[in-house]
Structure formats: structure tokens, C-alpha cells
Amino acid sequence: MTEVKASGGTITGGGGLQFVLHVVRGRWFSLFASFLIMAGAGATYLFGTYSQEIKNSLGYDQTTLVLLGFFKDFGANVGVLSGLIAEVSPTWFVLLVGAAMNFTGYFMIWFSVSGKISNPKVWQMCIYICLGANSQNFANTGALVTSVRNFPESRGNMIGLLKGFTGLSGAIMTQLYLAVYGNDAQSLILLIAWLPAALSVVFVYTIREMKVIRQPNQQTVFYHCLLISIVLALFLMAMTLIEKAIPFSHAAYVVTATVSCAFLFSPLLVFIREELVIWRQMKQQSVGPAYTIAEDHENDPPVMVEKEMNQIPQVPKEINNSKMTSCFSNIFFEKPARGEDYTILQALLSTDMLILFLATLCGLGSSLTAVDNMGQIGGSLGYPETTVKSFVSLLSIWNFFGRIFSGFVSESLLVRYKFPRTLMMTLVLLLSCIGLLMIAFPFSGSVYVASIIIGFSFGAQLPLLFTIISELFGLKYYSTLFNCGQLASPLGSYILNVKVTGPLYDREALRDLQKKGLTRASVKELTCMGNQCYRLAFIILASVTFFGAMASLILVARTRQFYRGDIYKKFRGT
């Protein structure tokens, strides 16, 4: 009979099947599935890699390409629909809708670019890319919101890890497409179409809200995952730099992709070990069977979940039996205290949310503009195509470091020193200004450093935004509120990218044509070369970001007393 050894005990063949079920139906495996789904939910960050292929294949100018970038950002950040759907439907439905949208949107883009269908109109391409990008909100809502509710006391670490894997997804999928398809930007679009959709379908019934279990070594498990993710990020960064310097064979790309996948699946070993410890404790304490039937949060058929050990009291979900009042009567005058459960309207119309909206509009709007134009920035400064792809990959990797830094470091500073997360956001926005100015005034190697700074600061803003919303306005309507909170991002991108950066770039490109004695009609593609192409635009972006940092200081002052208290007290039932 097969035995699985553990320190202090064994699992025999009969109990082995029960243990496998215990793992698959547990919180930790659900978190592992969330890691994989989030690792495939960052296709929007690869726009800088395949945007030139769209531009060349369909004959677009920079303004049209920027318009596509806006609709990509619009779809990626307008997640209110996914949040509202999640309020009234189970997680598996949210994930399936997202998978269908992802496959449909990106597959139509691939059809168009590869010439398998006639060239679509610009508005059709805008719909395709908006549909595909919007699918990542369904992955976010299904995986991230569920994981935060399953681990409420570690939400900073949780959001940092999950959004960190999303930040790495660009570099991971780059390695995969090089291994599977070779250096073909069109095939990258095809990979983006089927891989994230397949992940959501495979794990569709795994991710669900479960009863919360307090475990004393929970933070240790998260730090193990952090270490694995950092090693993965360093490996991807090293491979990105080596691939730039040394030509890789197809076999070498296959080895690199295999090692990347091995690191990506490593957290499963940590989670199995953790579940094994829980399993042994339950057996030793004779607390009954490994599972008990519990009502699933989403009113699905009863599912097997781990029996509670030192269970944390859940945040009450029922409305108090006190006298019901009109929804609108308490929006402005009878709001809950910070940290309690706000209604959707109370949160959206609060001063705190409005300030957060303004800071997000300035910060994420500028960062998204820089991310979307990174490929063209490298081209305008005369870098070869392989180097431009390195900029995009470095931006993706440092996006990851920014996310885990803001998640883990802000959580540690908050717990130990009561350092407000809102102040961390101010510091991140100021850092972003430096990266933007390095593109406005480039020097030798400055784009490398700027891509690192912009990627880091862009990544750091998202976990801070999502965590601050959960802390200030509660978890009851978090599915909708965190999606509403990022609505400022596409608005900022539209203003700063479509209305500012794109036209300024085209103006400089037309000046170059005039110097050569050419007109717009004489060239298929409008291209600008030189330091002046993005100078004025990025000076404006840096100024706007600085204004957002100053606005966020107001929120720091307003929430100072809140963060000095014990914001997780209610989850400990004390």
C-alpha cells in the first residue's frame, strides 16, 4: 500500500485519496489556481510588443494606434460589469464569461493581423481589443476578490502576490510564445487568445469563497511564495538580458520556458506541505473527518471545505434588523466609520474616494501612457527591435517587483509602525515622476532605467489602490468597489495618451516629413525619430503625476487617525 511520509506521520493509500481531495478542495489550492489565472491575466501589458505588428499590418498611424491603446486601457480598467455580475452570480460563471471574452477579442485581432479576414475598420478593432482586455477584470474579480475574502488579515500580501503574478505575465508569456511559436509577434496574439481562457476553464470550479481559518504560520507561507516569485522574476530578467545579448536557438527557448513554468508551479509544493500539516493536526486532535459540508458563499450546491480550526468570525453579510431607511438618505450624512462596510453609493460619493480617483487618474493615467508607448519610444530613439522588446519585458518584470513591494512592505510597515498606505501611494507617484522625466530628457541607457522605474511605480500603484479601497470601505461590496476605483485609469489614459501624447508625437513626425520635403500622403506609416518626439508629452505627464502626488497627501491627512488604529481588529473577533 502506498505511503506518503510526513514529519511525524504517514498517509496510507486509503487516506491518500482523501488527502488529495482535502488539498484540491482547500483554500491553498484555490490560491494556487488564482496565481495561475492571474499569471495569464496581464496580456494588456504586452501591447507594446505586438502593437507595432498591428500598426504595420493594418497601416495605422500613431494616433490610430494610440486610440487602440486607449480602448485596450478602457477595457482593462472598466470592470464595473464584472463586479456587478460577481455580486449576483457564482465565481465559476464570472470566470467563464471572462474566458469567452478573452478568446473572442484576441482571436479576432489575430485573424485581422494575420490577413485571414479582410482588414477590419478601426472601430471594429477597438471593439475587439476592448473586449479582450476587459476579460482580465473577470479574472481579477473571480480570483483576486475571492482570495482576499479567504485571507482577509493578509490582504496586503495577498493582493501584492496576485497582482505581482499578473505583472510577470508579460515576461512569462513572452518566453512561452518564443518556445512554442518562435519570434513571431502575430503568434503572440494567438497565444494571448487561447492560454488565459484555457486557464480559467481548467480551474473554473476550484476558485470559490470558503470559511476562513486562522493559521499561525500563514505569513510564513506567504513569504515562501514571495521568495519563489522573486526567484522567478530574477530568472526572467536574466533570460531577457541574455536573450538580448546572445542569439537563442529554439531548443534554448524551450528550456527557458520549461524552467519558468517549473518556478510558476512551485507554490503548489508549499501549499501541499501546509495542507499536510493541517491534515495531521486534524487527525491527531480527533476533530472528525477532514471535511464538513458547508454552504458555499455563492449559493452553489454544497461543497467540501476544511473544518474550522480557530475560525475567524466572518464579516456579517446580513443587513441589520434595525429600521430600514432610504438608500439615499444616508449617503452624505450617515456614513459608516472608515473600515466598516459602505454601500456602493456611499463609497463612490465619499470625499476619500473622490481624492483617490483624482490621484489614480493622474498616476495610473500617466503610467499607462508610458507603458503603451514604450515600444515606439525605443524606436524613436534608434534602438533595435530586440532591445525594444527588452524594454517591454523589463517593464513587466519590474511591474512585478513594484506590486510585491507595495503589498508586502506596506503591510509590514502598517502592522509594525502604523505607516499609512496612503502615504506609500504618494511616495510611489513621486518616484514615477523621475522615470517620466528620464524619457523626456533621454541620455545613454536612460530608457533602461526609465522602464524599470515606470514599471516599478506602475505596479506599486495597483495593489495600493485595491488595498486602500478594501480598508476604507469594507469587503461587503468589494467586488464592485475595487473595479469602480480603477475607472479613473482609462479616463486618465484617454486624456493623456489619446489627446496629448499621440497628437504631440504625430506633430513632431510631420515636422520631420516637412524637413525631408515629404507629405503625409507620401508615406504609409507616420514615424518620428529623435529625442524631441516624446519630450513635451512626457514633461506634461510628469507634471500631472506630481499633481496627483500632492492630491494624495490630502488623503494621507484625512486617514492618518484611521491607520493609527487596529484596522484588522474585527477579523480577529476581539
- The gross shape turns out to be globular
Distance between the termini: 47 Å
Q: What's the tally of helices?
A: 22
Quick check: average pLDDT?
82
Largest sheet strand order: 1-2
Q: Which blocks of ≥5 consecutive residues have pLDDT under 50? A: 1-9, 287-325
**Order of helical and strand elements:** EEHHHHHHHHHHHHEEHHHHHHHHHH
Spatial extent as radius of gyration: 24 Å
**Hey, roughly how much beta strand do the residues contain?**
under 5%
Helix content: 55-70%
Q: What structural class do you assign from the helix and strand content?
A: mainly alpha
| Beta strands, count | 4
Largest sheet: 2 strands, antiparallel
Keywords:
two-stranded antiparallel sheet; 70% helix; 574 residues; globular; disordered N terminus; mainly alpha
In short:
With 574 residues, the chain is mainly alpha-helical. It has helices at 13-24, 27-39, 47-58, 62-77, 80-88, 91-113, 122-150, 155-180, 185-202, 218-245, 250-265, 267-284, 344-348, 351-372, 374-380, 385-417, 421-440, 446-473, 478-485, 488-515, 535-558, 560-564, and strands spanning 3-6, 9-12, 291-294, 303-306. It has a two-stranded antiparallel sheet with strand order 1-2. A two-stranded antiparallel ribbon has the order 3-4.
Summarize the structure in words:
- The structure is a single chain.
- The protein is mainly alpha-helical and about 575 residues long.
- It contains 22 helices and four strands.
- It has helices at about 15-25, 25-40, 45-60, 60-75, 80-90, 90-115, 120-150, 155-180, 185-200, 220-245, 250-265, 265-285, 345-350, 350-370, 375-380, 385-415, 420-440, 445-475, 480-485, 490-515, 535-560, 560-565; strands at about 5, 10, 290-295, 305.
- The strands form two sheets. It has a two-stranded antiparallel ribbon. The chain has a two-stranded antiparallel ribbon with strand order 3-4.
- α4 (about 60-75) runs parallel beside α7.
- The longest helix is centred in the C-terminal third of the chain and has 33 residues, at about 385-415.
- The two termini are about 45 Å apart.
- About 50% of the residues are buried.
